[in-house]
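hey team, just a heads up i'm posting the complex here instead of the shared drive bc the drive is being weird again. everything in one block, sequence lines first with there labels, then the predicted structure for the whole assembly after. its two chains so it's a bit long, scroll down
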Amino acid sequence: MDGQLPIDTRPWPVRRDAALHDQTMQQTIGVVTKRLANAKVTAYAAYPEANHWRQRAVEVKRQSIRQLEEHLATFTQQVESHGGKVHRATTAADAIQTILEVAQHHQVRSVIKTKSMVTEELELNRALENAGIAVRETDLGEYIIQLAHEKPSHILAPALHKNREQIHALFDQDALVYHTEPPASEDIVALTQYARRRLREEFLAADMGVTGGNFLVAETGTVVLITNEGNADMVTTLPRLLVSVVGVEKIVADWSGLIDVIQQPALSGVGQRLSSYTTLVSGTRGPDQWEGPDEWHVVLLDNGRTQLKDTPFEDVLSCIRCGACLNVCPVFRQVGGHAYGSVYPGPIGIVETPLLTNFEVLPELPSALCTLCHACGEACPMNIDLPGHIVQLRQMKQERHMNAIGVTRSYRWWARFWATPHGYRRSMRWARWGQWWFVRHGRIQSAPGLAGGWFKTRDMPPVASMTFHEWWDRTRGKRQ
Amino acid sequence: MMSEEEGRSQTLQLFATCLIDLFRPQAAMAAVDVMERRGATVEFPTAQTCCGQFSYNAGYHREAADLARHWVAVFDAALRRDSQARVIALSGSCAAMVIREYPSLLYHDALDRGDSVDEAERWQERAERVGKRVIEFTEWLAHEATAELPTSGIGVTYHNGCHMRRMLGITSVPETVLQSHGFSIVPMEEADQCCGFGGTYSMTEWPVSTAIADQKLQALGKSREMGAQCLTSADFGCLAHLSGRLSRRRDPFPVVYIAELIALADRGPVTVEAVQQMAQHKEEG
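-- predicted structure starts here --
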């Protein structure tokens, strides 16, 4: 069944122009993506076995997806034998309904969350707030964008587009609302101290925790969370009620598989050998334990994922959400995450958004946000064929008649003429004859049709008065 | 400089690419000069048109396959005349299209047109066979025994095309070749970033494409401060994009295709004036 993804309803040109005019965002995103991409390269260079382990991780992910249903059955059995409850959600709406039922059954009034892209996919915060439940994000980046009433602009670093000055202003405003002391300065330490102090109050007051999950281990029924802030430890242990929402593709068979994959998100995402904290949840609080939730619900979300199984796009399900493809993408570096209009931006978002929703939303993504430079394919630690998929999606759009008819006709005529030497030479003569309406100062400065876009910002030399073909015929033709 | 492999002249079939043929024929003329100076026999299969990458990347695979079949037929015929001959591509990107994309494109297109699996496999094998004999110009040049030329001191900054780098894995070869011909390489910041061209992407999504080009020109600005006197590349598509943007910004900074620089160095000591004159694109009758 097709999935449902929330979107920014503004048309692409509006989103694009907003991004291209936001110089602060462009500058911040440029600096941070470069820093992350370089950190990855440095980390790999300093770690001789990096590629060996990466390759093993790829095998583990591929193998896990091939036996998805078996592993999910084992996982479910294990979780339920440790006092948890597993729910399968086919769509985003199913997941929301399940989570709201759990929260309402326990009269939950406030929720604390770890960073989770799946809950963004569900727009869970909005659903909870509409039901009168307060939500607090506890990942620093998520906390910042929650205060700004924005959405993440990057899979791994949600507040990547915000600079220190902007964050300081948000915290100052928050301090006024909560009658507390504002951050001492714009300094990173001061800002972090402020968030730590504020979030501590929220951790202690919340009555439900919500987490995502980086991995699911089938053999022991374990949800694995990796963070650099330790907030997942608090979210999973302080509130009496815990809900973990995880995409089905996060499954691995066993702990040896987990060991093979666990370092990959941090290694490729931020150039760190391993994330600072690893939080493992395997069940509810036992009778002789003093920490952990009384009740634990795991929501396994499909939302269009399993329909990619056994298709040429199956490797997409190996994505570990490291963001490496975003960091190297020249388009992402210019327009940032929000311009994509999808929860999942960057090359992986271009591929996943139409695939999960069967082209229902944002069909412009594969065509409008990729130059096909192949940087993403090179960066992806999971060997996902992102450039190949983008070309394939463009072809699918064409087959489904999703392109403007004029554009399609241009390509048809182009191929018709250029598939024969005679047609090629004829079209060249026409171009040479027609171009003089558009030449200024020896350069072509405008053109009709498909080529028109080029000349909005760039010139082109005219078709040569003697092409190479003609030069060859004239000077060498007789020798052939 | 007149090197001959195994005592006989090698035959090179020139794949000039449509962009160079139409918009910068001097680049192909220079390449012919460079190859002939090194003792090669250059042939130009005159039935060649375009590799079809524009259509392929835009998702028009049927149209791309029409062009690809023509390309394979033309060069297959040319190569069959000489079992040692190779195809020299004047673009890393077009070479990558032929080498990396043709086999599966032609296979799938044959099936889509209702041909038998056997027929589809024949097209795939034919594309693979021809593709194995395609070599990008600078990579060919790097294997030629060239006497080190004295340094001209001309600072050149090199743009590494995305497909050449990532699909063919050619990274430092062109810079090495430039150095051995007396040019000094001025590095480009963020050299692995795209120039924003992307074929028809530059037309359909010109605002983003231009923003990426401007980022590249900003990096170029730094190379210029460090002494770069000209910009070059082994991909004319990228150069057309960047020089087109420079031209619109009324910036006269010289941009020349790599074979033109090599041909210039072959002819004697290179001067900045000669490079500038070459970049100014003066046409002969």
